[in-house]
Specification:
alpha/beta; eight-stranded mixed beta sheet; three-stranded antiparallel beta sheet; 11 helices; 21 strands; about 30% helix
Length: about 400
């Protein structure tokens, strides 16, 4: 049946009844896409999408630069070795591309204090003019924290029902013989905008890549706990149990607090994984002034897992440095730190970090616990930080030296 959007005039063909497939192939089919659900319309995306474009920051706060972040996270002068043993990558969707000239200008302004590469080593997929703030942000900061590490730019030129084609990307990774050890992704969608079957199929691929030793980090979203029809609205893939979800903080070395936009809460689709049961139970046992239990699924997968700075990042676009906010800043920052940890591991004959979450929840002491601040939500707000894990900043912010020490001990 043909349906037409009354405001935008977009037409799609959708089935008015449940689809069926022959029994002979049913066991081999996970889902049939583009049959029932309507596309996510651009007119409402900025308001409802869990992870909109990075926001221009307010120039009244503490600016974040590569130098300040490297000091904050105890990276200091540490850099990697640029070869094929250790690779990190950003992933882009929805027509976002980076600019080599903007990257050069960024490092001219902010890269004098540490050794670094001057460009992406490999581009997979489209990358053309004009450049986007999101893509520039991801490239500039993963290459600053994970400095001098071979970095790829993985771009997906197609969409899934007007949204990010996550499944196409992760299947490309599955089919690649050489892959980065770290992926940073600053995109997400509301859980309720995707079918459960589609998300489960992506989760299967996430699990497969974990067995290869790959770390996949997603920004947790910029809408706090979210709010839709009077209840909190989780973001996916941040809510997947098989990725590391990165929330947002603000402030500086003397005081790190939660950023109000930091996405966090509890999945309405996926159950709580075993690796975080103790941490989440502690949160519910100690947290004060919790939102009404009617607003969220207490038994769902809790996120984020970790956090990093997310406010007032200088990003160069069209040769102009502008302050940008969002967990889109936090994901490549944290990912770059893990890239450096992997670099040390592989050069000492160890395997890379791989799926981070079991390590994170087993070793919370390697992160800086964020105990102040709350995220946004429905009327009355979202969740607030407490000692230990919380659904605003996860277990905490990275400390490179502590993560490396624990990782080396775990690999021995």
């Amino acid at each position: 049946q043909r349906f037409r959007h009354t405001l935008q005039g977009t037409e799609v063909i959708r089935a008015s009844q449940a689809y069926t497939v022959p029994k002979s192939v049913a066991a081999h089919v996970d889902f049939v896409g583009g049959v029932h659900r309507f596309p996510h319309m651009q007119a409402t995306q900025a308001q409802n999408n869990s992870l909109p474009k990075p926001k221009l920051g307010q120039p009244d706060g503490l600016f974040q630069t590569p130098g300040s972040l490297r000091n904050l996270y105890k990276v200091d002068k540490t850099v990697g070795v640029a070869d094929e043993k250790n690779i990190q990558s950003v992933v882009q969707f929805l027509g976002q591309h980076y600019s080599k000239t903007d990257l050069g200008e960024f490092f001219l302004l902010f890269g004098e204090s540490f050794d670094h590469l001057h460009d992406i080593s490999k581009v997979i997929g489209p990358n053309h003019f004009p450049a986007g703030t999101e893509a520039n942000l991801d490239v500039q900061y993963i290459m600053s924290l994970g400095a001098n590490i071979t970095t790829w730019f993985w771009s997906i030129g197609t969409e899934h029902q007007s949204q990010e084609a996550f499944l196409i990307w992760i299947e490309q990774v599955a089919n690649a013989s050489q892959v980065p050890w770290v992926f940073s992704i600053s995109y997400g969608d509301d859980e309720d905008s995707l079918s459960a079957a589609y998300m489960e199929r992506i989760n299967q691929e996430f699990q497969k890549q974990a067995t290869r030793g790959i770390s996949i980090l997603f920004a947790s979203g910029d809408s706090g706990a979210g709010c839709h029809n009077g209840v909190f609205r989780p973001s996916y893939p941040a809510s997947s149990p098989y990725v590391t979800s990165v929330g947002g903080t603000q402030g500086g070395e003397s005081s790190q607090t939660a950023a109000g936009l930091s996405g966090g809460g509890f999945s309405l689709v996926f159950p709580e994984p075993d690796y975080q049961t103790t941490a989440v139970s502690h949160f519910f046992a100690t947290a004060k002034d919790l939102p009404s239990s009617k607003l969220y699924n207490r038994s769902g997968r809790a996120y984020p897992d970790v956090a990093a700075m997310a406010m007032n990042f200088f990003v160069v676009t069209d040769f102009v440095p502008l302050p940008v906010d969002g967990t889109s800043c936090a994901a490549p920052t944290f990912s770059g730190v893990i890239g450096l940890v992997n670099d040390h591991l592989v050069r000492n004959g160890k395997s890379p970090m791989g799926f981070l979450n079991p390590f994170i929840y087993k070793n919370p002491q390697v992160l800086t616990d964020i105990t102040s601040g709350c995220n946004e939500g429905c009327a009355g707000g979202g969740f607030c930080c407490t000692a230990g894990w919380d659904p605003v900043t996860g277990v905490g912010a990275p400390v490179y030296t502590s993560i490396l020490q624990a990782a080396m001990a775990a690999k021995n």
